[in-house]
Amino acid sequence: MIIYYVSSVIHVDAMSLSLEHIVRKPQADAAAPPLLILLHGLGSNEQDLFSFAPQLDPKYLIVSLRAPILNGFGGYAWFNLDFSRSMPQVDLQQFESSRKLLLQEIEEITNIYHTDKNKVYLAGFSQGAMMCYAVALTHPQMIAGVVAMSGYVLQDLVPKITDKKGLENLNILATHGVYDQVLPVFLGRATRDFLKTLPVKFSYQEYNMAHEVSYDCFVDIKRWLSAQIS
């Protein structure tokens, strides 16, 4: 269901999409606007990244999704993570289930909201960024670009990346904090090095921040998103 506090938010029937979500309409009427889908991190919800929406390019129709798994932190998750070891341990079954669900959700969103299927962008934070990679790298024909904030490419995803030709049109902005203690910066750097082996167009930026989105980081994200549809 969509219920929010400004007139630019669309209200639709709860059954319209598989996941709970919030939508910001584009400022200008367009027959098929570009689409930006926001994917929150562990223990959060659809209202988290949606707080960025008023400051993002007004040409986008923005959809912020709620992850399907109720999490013990009081929010939601795309998959459960175990931080008890040196490397985060991912529930791979949940990860794959959410990847498939998001592919379905993108189809639903573009059909219901009549957005441009050639201009679908994903932006995610932490495990939301991991889901952005999971969708875009395995189905690049569906995604024009990705903003991956403080996330990384899961090694188990690599065998599923088969459409190397399709990756040539995929644009990625990856950001990470050098003081990140949740998903340490070496994970971002490993993803940077991996992306160099693929025919994607990508930019990797580090910031003097922890597991967060700093002001400087957000300014760069805004600029990058606007440049994609200018």
| Regions with little confidence, pLDDT below 50 for 5+ residues | 1-15
Q: Helix coverage percent of residues?
A: 25-40%
Would you tell me which CATH topology applies? Rossmann fold
CATH architectural grouping: 3-Layer(aba) Sandwich
Could you give the count of β-strands? 11
Order of helices and strands: EEHEEEEEHEHEEHEH
Terminal residue distance: 32 Å
CATH class: Alpha Beta
What is the CATH superfamily?
Alpha/Beta hydrolase fold, catalytic domain
Mind describing the biggest β-sheet? 7 strands, mixed
Strand order of the largest sheet: 1-3-2-8-9-10-11
The proportion of strand residues reads: 15-25%
Radius of gyration, CA atoms, in whole angstroms: 16 Å
Give the tally of structural domains: 1
The tally of helices reads 5
| Arithmetic mean of pLDDT | 91
Overall 3D shape: globular
Structural class: alpha/beta
Summarize the structure.
The protein is α/β, with parallel strands linked by helices and 230 residues long. Helices cover 27% and strands 20% of the residues. The protein has five helices and eleven strands.
